[in-house]
Amino acid sequence: MTQPPSGSGGPKGSAAPAAPTGPNGFWAQASADPDRTVLVAPEGEEWTAGRLHADANRLVHGLRAAGLERGDVFAVVLPNGVEFVTAYLAAAQAGFYLVPVNHHLVGPEIAWIVSDSGAKVLIAHERFAEAATGAADEAGLPASHRYAVGTVGTVGTVGAIGGFRPYAELLDGQSAEPPADRTLGWVMNYTSGTTGRPRGIRRPLPGKLPEETYLGGFLGIFGIRPFEGNVHLVCSPLYHTAVLQFAGASLHIGHPLVLMDKWTPAEMLRLMAVHHCTHTHMVPTQFHRLLALPQEVKDQYDVSSMRHAIHGAAPCPDHVKRAMIEWWGSCVEEYYAASEGGGAFATAEDWLKKPGTVGKAWPISELAVFDDDGNRLPAGELGTVYMKMSTGGFSYHKDEGKTKKNRIGDFFTVGDLGLMDEEGYLFLRDRKIDMIISGGVNIYPAEIESALLTHPAVADAAAFGIPNGDWGEEVKAVIEAAEGHEPGEALAAEILAHCERQLAGYKRPKTVDFIETMPRDPNGKLYKRRLREPYWEGHDRAM
Length: 543
Known about the structure:
The chain is of the alpha/beta class. The N and C termini lie far apart (47 Å).
């Protein structure tokens, strides 16, 4: 895993995914070269393709012995680790649906997903024992269908989670040989549920052998090619749709994975240098914290192997993006997408030419902007962004109403506001649910947050509307202070003065509150609803 990379990685922004230059899919590659290292676990242990293949096969046999059949569901509440990757590979060759659960959720939230998905088996890590136990009890899962993963060195121990069987029992005594009746399965991700209960995004199973579908084609959108000395760094939680999709596709086109469990900026740089990582999926919060490292720490590590540092999931302030490009070069690329499908992609060159863009539509996607009456808008006009995919549709599990809602023909939306220019480049403004309306004027929090983050005392920031008797809403800023800066009235006044120099009067926060830690998940997604709700208690406002 320490060989320097070779090859160019392919042209960026290619019109179509490239065909594989070796065996298609992880399973075929593992059979052809079982001794090749394909994964470095968070604790540093290296796994060969043959070993990982054998465990994935054993898990399929174990889940079938537990009663799972084609089309059935199992859920995992796991940190980044070998067991997560094994679950992904097992589902994908046995025709199962894998439901990855955000391990930051509490018991009732996990129970909802387990019950709603119809999961027949739950695999959880002992780190999340309390939530997993509560979820399994509330969902009514029998003890025979609950399995617990222990910490390193204790994976097979009894009692990792009370009432759960050891994960090793799923694998022990099972054949390491590929299962019979292999058929492609899918991941069924659950949407974040910012406006209600999360819903599973379910796609029909194709009924094909796994090798009959080119499972790494997704990465071709970004110019990432099979093999060619590439190494993928997983630096965000695998329960996130994009993170697992990037990791899985990388594995299927011959790229070893280097897994991080708990992300820190210095450790990321170290792993990039040691393993010559060539591509990764990131979020702007990670950029912000990397840039905050002391220069002497940054200078310790060679990051020149990185070819594609692809970011998404949240808006990236212009000054942060520009600083990362100055440091890492043209490998800093951006995408816009939804768990449901569809998207846009911007190279560093695209962004420097058109600052603020999230790019042009993927070759397998189409973008459009519509007004509230369902009319398609011309270039330059702000509206709701819609997407569609040429690779097939989806439905929200057990929610036909939501499946039909927010659709115009084959296009769907997740509620983002934006516009497209004459060349087809998309520019996002904000999520419709987050837009502030003050005195009839639309105010976009992302612009305010970007300005706040240029202040050296601001480690993280959120802006949203709170009640105002005259104007309907006014702008509130909530700040996580940077290390070495004391939250309080003096700092609040300094930040407000900073905003006077950065923003028009109607956009400026009227008041600033401080918070110890911003409520973000490790993918960078801000739970703004949690911040906003207390200010709206007793007032009428859609959350």
